[in-house]
Amino acid sequence: MIIVLTGIDGSGKSTAARSLVASVRARGGRALLVSNHAGRRVMSLAAGRLGVRLPARLADAVETVLRVGNVLLSHLRATRFDGLVVMDRHLHCQLALRRAKGLPRGRFLPWLLARLPQPDAILHLDLDHAEAHRRISARGTDSETLDDLAAFNRGYRELPEYAAFLRIDASRTAVEVAAEMDRWLAGVAVTKPH
Question: Where is the Thymidylate kinase-like domain positioned along the sequence (predicted)?
Answer without folding.
Answer: 7-178
